Structure prediction request, 289 residues.
Amino acid sequence: MLSMTGFGRAGADAAGRRLVIEVRAVNHRFLDLKLRLPWGGVELEARIGAAVRKRVDRGALSINISEDAAARTPSVHANLPLAMAIHAALVELADALGAPPPGLDAVLAQPGVLVVGEPATAIDELWAALEPGLDAALVALAAERAREGAALAADVLARVANLERLAAELGRLAAAGPEAARKRLTDRLAKLLGEGQVDPQRLAQEVALLADKADVSEELTRLTAHLHELRALCSAPGPVGRKLDFLLQEVGREINTTGSKSQATEIARLIVDAKAELEKIREQIQNVE
Prediction:
């Protein structure tokens, strides 16, 4: 089980810069990716998105790639083609005017000959430098999500155990229901009609009808099966959040039907406890991928 929340951080050297890559993830029904990059470019964003989707199925992810200013060394480089073209033009002009040949100062004085900053980098070269850092940040994110997921799984399993205990108690009370109904009906009729006036055959028919209406054996069987599946999903690899959400709907349906079929006070109390545990599990799985 993986949590949808987490944080990962890594560094990368690209285009002469030391970059810091930070990935933050929070809950979301789908995969929602937001990027903040020092460079624009649809192709780079597409490559980052593809790398994220290999590792993340759901969650709102914010990826921020920024420059580590403390580690930056200013870069100055010469635009050699431009400098050579300017020098040739100045030499031609000096010859035409009978002036001395131009020196380096005259070339350096022209705009664009010296460039402060990093030269443009091809997308393939940039991605080759950036990808390992992004991958390291995503690995760190996955490790944190796995740790949080393990804690979530432990909590959910503890609550599943409580539901299993409640389901077993419901089964015990439901099995004793027909006898309890027979006793209640016998006592009621005895008060109304007097002792010895109750038709045993008619009483048996009424008890059978009441027992049939209150029979929750199928619901409890399905509830037990759903709880077993919940246990399995808590240990399953990969994204399970959507499956857990659907399964909890089925668990809730069986609990509600069991409660609606029975009028016993003890069963009603257990149904309230089961619904409380179920709601706590629902809250937890909102964090599960």
